[in-house]
Write a structure and sequence with these properties.
The protein is mainly α. It is built from 16 helices and no strands.
Amino acid sequence: MAPAEGYGYAVSRLRAMSGRLLEEAVLQRILECEDLDSALKVLGETVYSGWLMELKGSSEFDKAIEAELLHVYSEVQKFVPDDRLVQLCRLPYDFHNVKVLMKSAILVRDGGERRFDLLTRLGNISTDDLIMAMESEDYRLIPFGLHGLIPKCFALWEQTKDIFEVEKTLDSGLFTAMRKIAADCKIDSAVFWVRGKIDAENIRNLLRMKRMDMEAGTVAGFLHDGGFISREKLLSILSEPVESWPRVLSFTDAAKTFSRVQDAGDLNTLLVDMEKVLDEYIAGMVENSKYKAFAPENVISFLWRKELEAKNVRIALVSVSNDTDRSMARGLLRHAG
């Protein structure tokens, strides 16, 4: 771990890069547009302009969003004293890519065609390296515990033919890897941030399972260890009305997220609202770093704000493209301080 003083330069660079973060007014202007082309013209007045010029058509705006996010990750990785902080933020994309390639491999075994179009360049591992490993079935050089996890998941598929079991195993592996990286960094704020992410994911899963009226034994498999809230505590509230959950979980900061949604009685509406407030809760785990000139958590805070920006841009452009209710889209926009 680099000493705290080593982050002074990194924090200065991050503050200089804050100009790449979109102001909320830009998102509002996009949502006021009548069609997608007009919305992309507004976005073209920002740092996204170069990426938009490379698109073959306006419907490919996702590529521009990914390109901007990849640029930021790559730049930050060049000057951060411990690039494991960046790895931590990019790791979910590695596991996403593994899921895509495993499903593709399963399709091929059943006579289907390979699907590489859902892969993203945002992970730590080159997509070419992942594809080669999956094609050759040689996983020895794949990091983050995936060298052992991938063959385990293929064996699980052969036994169960249940893709949800495979995804659960990969999700568990993701949070195990994130916890390890955070612990190895020896940065308390990174550990707390990962624990907050685990709580957020567990609450999401618990709400989804509650809506589907699943039994506790089934739900337990979708919950992950390592958060501030134990799996046992979460399972104990499954049978309770959602309105009572904040009281039972009042000892945690995550419980406050429920107070920010208007209708806890309608699980469908609650799930949508909680997606937003849980993302904001994760941002809040490192929000105070902006007042600290040498705090390593500034790295995580900046990158997560950029992640939320990517979500916001996508929400706004999809809303305009599909001509959906703009007020609904505004309600989905994430705010990160």
